[in-house]
Write a structure and sequence with these properties.
Strand content: under 5%
Order of helices and strands: HHHHH
Structural class: mainly alpha
Length: 136
């Protein structure tokens, strides 16, 4: 399994995912911070910033990272629905981790957001590569 994964194509996909993940995560963090400054709670700020970042990331994942050029609106709609379900699931995980780090471990909000995001980004990559945009 590991030898099969270590190919130039997979390494390039992973590097693209990391680079664009940093960009999208930056957008997520900036929105999160700005929404906190507008006196929204950390969970509401997290949900809003996460959803906006998710929409951007679907487009980038599909067409740039995994070069998944599906034919037909049905396949695109199916991929989008799976992507949204996956992202809602990881949003819940992200929010649970954020609450855990802030409320139980008493970490600062932004540090909690960074730790939770790193864990969720790794899970999102695995799910995107092997479930949503897998090459058939």
């Amino acid at each position: 399994m590991i030898k099969r994964y270590i190919s130039s194509k997979n390494i390039i996909e992973t590097l693209k995912y990391v680079a664009t993940g940093i960009l999208i995560s930056s957008i997520n963090f900036i929105l999160f911070y700005l929404l906190l400054k507008f006196s929204l709670g950390y969970l509401a700020s997290n949900v809003i910033s996460y959803l906006i970042a998710t929409l951007l990331f679907f487009i980038i994942n599909k067409y740039y990272i995994f070069k998944n050029i599906s034919a037909g609106i049905y396949i695109i709609f199916k991929e989008f629905c799976l992507f949204i379900i996956m992202r809602i699931t990881t949003l819940i995980l992200d929010s649970i981790l954020l609450t855990l780090f802030i409320e139980f471990f008493l970490l600062p909000i932004m540090l909690s957001k960074i730790i939770a995001s790193v864990l969720v980004i790794g899970l999102n990559f695995i799910l995107s590569k092997f479930i949503i945009f897998k090459n058939k």
